[in-house]
Design brief:
This protein is of the alpha/beta class and 640 residues long. Helices cover 40% and strands 19% of the residues.
């Protein structure tokens, strides 16, 4: 898969080539007025940049004292490697821009990673990392020697695993919430040839055993796995390793693969900060089938068994369905008459995608950028949550021009490589799967149906009553833990404080007697919305203080926040508290909830210089409202 007709994994060919005047654009940004615009930096980063250009972009970041981040999420990342990593760190920082992250990096001196983790007043401790990347090399872990005795090989693996676990524990004790743990690529050179698969003392067998342990450690320590072993196999292990560079400068892999490595690190950072895409928007003609349905008719389009081209288009549809199975929403944006565009979904015997798989179906003659905005509005998500697949270079260019925040992969001429281009771009990166993920695409499809119902009924109060909503409110538990952590780390708009917590921290909150932590689900006659809100309050005898209050935007206006407050107020009163308190901390994306507490009856007590506002509610004066829903759950059994 290293080299394909029209598609190259190593050169990130799903991205546009770097502009010919790249250096000139770098200089223009450097000479421009402060603060530097984050969108302009991102515009440069969303090209296929080699190591030299990534380094130039990183130097610009280093020289810039003021950056207006816009939609970029700041992340303080420490890279703890046991090989030379300065050039890798530069590439990560520049690549992070294309995944929505403004990264600040810390790199200990060579060979000092373990010392810094275990020293309380080290530079690492003072840096205050949000995330730590642990990037080990098999040679530094003592797995570069073969063993005739299986027991000796087992001991070597155990020693390497113990060292990794020691680092994980030290990082956790130092207070860093998020750890990214990297698997180890296996070198290509055999010891016993094909018998290496059966020899536990072979270097490849030892590393494979350690990778199994690393996967288990990631689960145990709630770390995020970065599967570089899998990436090296995808590229080719002989291509990944460059022994000359290791001996000369302790470089862990080939220099020209740094952009690919850095992009994979950056997409993990983006996924951890909720930047992964949620919806795949599909063109139809010559994207989901060969030919033009309006000209060729159902019988004339190429799709399905019987031809290589038809099978290639079927593979595109099947990959879209694979994404839908894990919660990615599917939409259609086609320049066509709608009835004509729907014909293959209804009548073609080989089509894999069905109309019910599509959450929003738009086929008309309007500009595609305009229709993509409509899709985002119907789904109640941002346009930056969309990826758009279209075979037409002119349409791709237009969407990039009008909606630069939408991910639009470059595609090779041969549609057989469309699934690879989409898959390797990393737009839908995830750091975990929950039961709710499997339901999410259907939830968004049902939400689109609710939009239609609201337009039909007209009166909003009558519309809410017609939904037959049931709101389930319950404490944190094991079943919901993964989804709770996902919401905390992905929700940006309806999020009062945008504090982030790992799954391990969520597990600790579950049993903390000083916290009142709620997970909230909503169902209605159109379907199950799944978990849509998370609320955390700190309890004290007289006052409960809101730490986190977030909600999925797809249920805005459904009065769930009022139901939530009623639940919190009831529990706080029962515990003897007389006040609720909370704060709103502004971020680039959460302005929509600036008046959240005011709308619920809280009074503003003061405002910080950074715009953070503080609020209080007198529980003696609070009266729960009548709500157009039924409230259920172990905390209450109240019908309203």
């Amino acid at each position: 898969m290293r080299t394909m007709p029209g598609f190259s994994l190593e050169t990130l060919s799903w991205l546009l080539p770097a502009p010919v005047d790249f250096r000139k654009q770098i200089k223009a940004l450097a000479d421009g007025a402060a603060p530097m615009n984050g969108a302009a930096l991102t515009g440069l980063a969303t090209h296929a940049l080699d190591l030299n250009k990534l380094t130039q972009l990183d130097r610009l970041l280093e020289r810039t004292t003021e950056i207006e981040p816009g939609p970029l999420a700041p992340v303080r990342l420490a890279v703890l490697a046991d090989a030379t990593a300065e050039y890798i760190a530069s590439a990560i920082r520049a690549s992070a821009l294309r995944h929505g992250i403004l990264a600040e990096l810390y790199l200990p001196d060579y060979g000092q990673a373990a010392h810094e983790v275990l020293t309380p007043d080290s530079g690492l401790a003072r840096f205050g990392a949000d995330m730590v990347l642990l990037a080990f090399d098999y040679r530094s872990l003592g797995l570069d020697s073969v063993h005739m005795a299986p027991a000796a090989a087992e001991a070597a693996v155990e020693g390497a695993a113990s060292r990794i676990e020691m680092m994980l524990s030290g990082i956790r004790q130092a207070g860093t919430a998020t750890v990214i743990l990297q698997t180890l690529p296996i070198p290509p050179d055999p010891w016993c040839g094909h018998f290496d698969r059966q020899a536990p003392g072979a270097v490849s067998a030892q590393i494979a055993a350690l990778n199994t342990r690393i996967t288990a450690l990631a689960e145990t320590h709630a770390a995020t796995l970065l599967d570089i072993a899998g990436l090296a196999e995808l590229v080719g292990r002989a291509r990944w390793f460059d022994h000359a560079y290791w001996h000369r400068a302790k470089l862990p892999f080939a220099l020209d693969l740094v952009p690919l490595y850095a992009d994979h690190v950056a997409r993990i950072l983006g996924a951890l900060r909720g930047k992964a895409r949620k919806c795949l928007v599909l063109d139809l003609d010559n994207t989901c089938w060969g030919g033009v349905i309006g000209d060729d008719g159902v019988e004339g389009i190429r799709l399905g068994q019987g031809s290589a081209e038809g099978e290639a288009f079927l593979a595109i549809q099947r990959y879209a369905l694979d994404l839908k199975a894990r919660g990615i929403v599917l939409a259609v944006c086609s320049k066509n008459e709608e009835d004509t565009a729907r014909l293959p979904f209804r009548t073609h015997p080989d089509i894999a995608l069905k109309e019910d798989d599509i959450a929003v179906f738009i086929a008309n003659w309007d500009d595609k950028a305009t229709n993509i905005r409509r899709i985002a509005q119907t789904l109640n998500i941002g346009t930056d949550a969309l990826a758009f697949l279209d075979d037409n270079p002119a349409e791709r260019a237009r969407v990039r021009q009008m909606l630069p925040e939408v991910a639009v992969p470059e595609l090779p001429d041969d549609p057989a490589w469309y699934p690879a281009a989409l898959a390797q771009a990393g737009y839908f990166e995830t750091t975990g799967l929950s039961a709710d993920d499997a339901k999410r695409a259907e939830q968004y499809r049902a939400n689109a149906a609710r939009v239609v119902a609201m337009e039909t009924i007209g009166d909003y109060g009558a519309y809410l009553s017609s939904l037959e909503m049931v709101c389930d409110i319950r404490p944190f538990d094991e079943i919901g833990r993964t989804r709770i952590a996902q919401l905390i780390n992905k929700t940006n708009q309806f999020n009062l404080t945008t504090r982030r917590y790992t799954e391990a921290q969520v597990g600790e909150m579950q049993n903390d007697p000083d916290l009142f932590a709620l997970q909230i689900r909503l169902t209605d006659k159109f379907g199950d919305n799944g978990m849509i809100s998370v609320v955390i309050f700190h309890k004290s005898p007289d006052k409960w203080t809101c730490d986190t209050w977030l909600m999925s935007c797809r249920v805005l206006g459904r009065r769930v926040e009022e139901a939530t407050l009623a639940t919190v107020a009831t529990a706080a009163r029962a515990a003897g508290a007389t006040q609720l308190a909370g704060s709103y901390t502004p971020s680039p994306k959460n302005r929509m909830v600036a008046e959240h507490f005011a709308k619920l009856g809280f009074n503003c007590t003061f405002e910080d210089p950074d715009g953070t506002t503080h609020w209080q509610l007198n529980l003696a004066a609070y009266k729960a409202p009548e709500l157009p829903m039924t409230l259920t759950g172990p905390l209450l059994e109240v019908a309203t």
